[in-house]
Amino acid sequence: MAGRKALSGCGPADSEVVVKVSAPVRAALVVLLLVALLVAAGWLLQRRLIYFPDRSAPRLGAGVQEVSLPTVDGLTLGAWLVRPPPGTPDRRVAVLVAHGNAGNRQGRLPLAAALAGRGLTVLLTDYRGYGGNPGDPSERGLARDADAARAYLIDRAGFPAERLVYFGESLGAAVATALAVRHPPAALVLRSPFTDLPAAGREHYPFLPVRLLLRDRFPVGDLVARVTAATLVVYGTADTVVPPAQSLAVAGRAAGPVRVVAVAGADHNDAALLDGRQLVDAVAELAAGVR
């Protein structure tokens, strides 16, 4: 415009200010970024750190009946029913087995055979995503799978509810305990139970804020306080996966009569805690009290 000076270019006072960041601050920012990435990965991928399914279809063994379990959300799950062998007195008690977070029902067949040899009928379940089953595991999904297994034993296998024993192994102990709250059994067996999943996860991922991140909680300690059925807790004194103190804490919170069996020197996946004599004897004794 006439009579006015054009604006001049930026002088020294208007130049960009360069902020220098010290090396310690840069290092701290890098650490914060890495922690943020770990937290994000933990949130997005957490179920891959919880569930380790063997998705292959198990091989049917001798004396095993293959059965199907329809769930309320439209899945059909494969499972195995193992009855007492010929010549073994049938106690007419069924044991619903909810296995841990890894493998599939194939690996629990020795347990089923041992319990069937004591006159018990055993239903070996596989969760969604395990053992050739459709779907992906989650806390809600596993609860639906357990409900389907119980419904099979009552509606199709002909066992009354008061003659059912729930057997949960590790993560399966959480599944069995939650089922016992929804549908009380005659008795409950918890093998190597943790108090809740965040407490168990903190043992293996101490660098992550596990309690804040987890969507699947499995609060065994809180739930077992609502179970009045006779409860058996079995754990290994050398368990490196679930600390023995957590299994003892679960036993201490059981609302009903509880028996604790410690298998000396046994780690989480040792044979003694799969189908060992001490375990099988304790389960058979508990089942003998079902009337």
UniProtKB/TrEMBL annotation:
The chain crosses the membrane at residues 25-45. Residues 91-199 form the Serine aminopeptidase S33 domain. It holds the Pfam family Hydrolase_4. The keyword Lipid metabolism does not apply. InterPro entries: AB_hydrolase_fold (IPR029058), Hydrolase_4 (IPR022742). Keywords: Membrane, Transmembrane, Transmembrane helix. This is Serine aminopeptidase S33 domain-containing protein. The lineage of its organism: Bacteria, Bacillati, Actinomycetota, Actinomycetes, Micromonosporales.
